[in-house]
């Protein structure tokens, strides 16, 4: 993938996780700030997934292509579902739900990075 | 003075964080088992079937904890209890004799590949179920 974009994705995942936990500590239920933060992170993930998918379908071959594509799909699906679940019951814990989703997404990005590197691209 | 309290919803407050963690494990265990069973089942059928079983257990625990039906709580107790037994049995077997498990599952070596979260999670789950049950 693009090395810089993966690093930005890691930093963003960590930032979203910290943001979520902080809002729980401050007793803020999820609202507009959460939607904006998650939206920005999600946009980044979609850009990354589109670039990776285009390159895979454009001829780059990876040793575990299907696993790679599954992780790519997971990386863009978790945050919207997490945000939905967090806002469905607006308590302080919504922020931590978003943090858990961001950490899970970060792990997916890490696996994507690893599988991409295994392809020696 | 102890009044009788009805059970609290398991999917409320901090319980939603627990459900989010279970959901992520359900997703990752299902994806992992799917790839293992579809792609290379013959290499280690026992380990891959176990991966599939763990995935089902996480899915059932997520449904049980997130649900509000009368059977949701019973399903959660069953699934989380099974998860605890599973992670301990598989953890012990893999530590004592790794030969039977040529490929890792979620529960191998007490969930080492997942930061030991699979070992901690069932204890938290059981504690939460106990905490939210009816009392009085």
Characterise the protein shown here:
The complex is a heterodimer of chains A (121) and B (136). Chain A has helices at residues 3-25, 32-57, 65-88, 94-118. By secondary structure, chain A is mostly helical. Chain B is an all-alpha fold and 136 residues long. In chain B, 67% of the residues lie in helices and 0% in strands. Chain B has four helices and no strands. In chain B, helix 1 packs antiparallel against helix 2, helix 2 (45-66) runs antiparallel to helix 3 (70-96) and helix 3 (70-96) packs antiparallel against helix 4. The mean pLDDT of chain B is 89.
What does the secondary structure layout of this molecule look like, with pairings?
The complex is a heterodimer of chains A (121) and B (136).
Chain A: H1 3-25, H2 32-57, H3 65-88, H4 94-118
Chain B: H1 15-40, H2 45-66, H3 70-96, H4 117-132
Helix pairs in contact in B: 1-2, 2-3, 3-4
In brief, what are we looking at here?
Helices cover 81% and strands 0% of the residues of chain A.
Q: Which structural class should the secondary elements of chain A be placed in? A: mainly alpha
Structural class by sheet pairing and helices of chain B: mainly alpha
Distance between the termini of chain A: 8 Å
Strand/helix succession of chain A: HHHH
Helical amount of chain A: over 70%
The poorly predicted ranges of chain A are none
Share in β-strands of chain B: under 5%
Separation of termini of chain B?
10 Å
Using the CA coordinates, give the radius of gyration of chain A.
15 Å
- Biggest interface pair, counts: A-B, 21 and 17 residues
